Amino acid sequence: MSVTSLRSKVRDVADFPKKGILFKDITPVLRDPAAFREVIALLAKAVKKSKADLVAGIESRGFLFGAPVATKLGIGFVPIRKKGKLPWRTKRVRCTLEYGQDVLEIHADAVKRGQKVAIVDDLLATGGTAQAAAKLVRLIGGKVVLQAFVIELGFLNGRKKLAKCDMSSVLKF
Ligand code: AMP
Questions:
Q1: Could you tell me which of 82, 109, 77 has the C-alpha nearest to residue 93?
Q2: Out of 3.20.20.70, 3.40.50.150, 3.40.50.2020, 3.30.70.670, which CATH number does the structure's domain 3-172 have?
Q3: Which positions are catalytic?
């Protein structure tokens, strides 16, 4: 499937979840098997190139893409979750995103010291979420080798916040 057809599968929803936000809805990509497969293949290609030992996905849409990429490459998956959801000992970081604030957590033993981690999420907006996720991985001893996204909102310059590691996106808006 071409990148143009993939682009056409992303639905714009105005004023969700707040007035003034143009939400990029990826559910039409998920329900189209060819589109979903293609997105996973493109993300997996970037993650493979990064030589990551693990994929870390950011709750919740990052799970939908990160977990299939990890299984496709035969590497492990680590969830980065919203506050209070992970059962074991955690490290915690606050983050500001395009339309709100969040606290993200990771299990303290999820990554072994020096392991290479690729962070996957559905969308890069201001970069606050991705920056917090990278901080968490580094806090527990991991090395962030890639931040990969399905969608990058270029006009918000989130890329600048990820200067310390490689980044890739399947679709730019
Ligand atoms: P940010 O921290 O500003 O880069 O926001 C990224 C996070 O918020 C990602 O986990 C996205 O799922 C979500 N997000 C932010 N802005 C949008 C948007 N316009 N459409 C869809 N998701 C968004």
A1: 82
A2: 3.40.50.2020
A3: 61, 98
The protein residue with its alpha carbon nearest to ligand 1, atom 19, reads 23
- DSSP-assigned letters across all residues of 14-46: ET-SSTT-EEEE-HHHHTSHHHHHHHHHHHHHH
Using DSSP, state whether 111 is helix, strand or coil: coil
- Determine the residue of 103, 123, 124 to mutate for testing ligand 1's pocket, defined as the one with the most ligand atoms within 8 A of the Cβ atom: 123
pTM of the model: 0.97
CB 144 within 8 A of CB 138: yes
123's tokens: 């969308």
Distance 90 CA to ligand 1 centre (A): 23
Ligand 1 site, residue 158, Cβ cutoff 6 A: yes
Convert the pLDDT of each residue in 100-158 to its tens digit: 889 999 999 999 999 999 999 999 999 999 999 999 999 999 999 999 999 999 999 99
Residue identified by tokens 């299990």 is 107
Residues 40, 55 contacting (CB under 8 angstroms): no
* Joined tokens for residue 118: 């690729």
Sign of CA dihedral 143, 145, 150, 154: positive
CA of 103 to the centre of ligand 1 (A): 14
Domain spans in the chain, listed from the N-terminal domain onward = 3-172
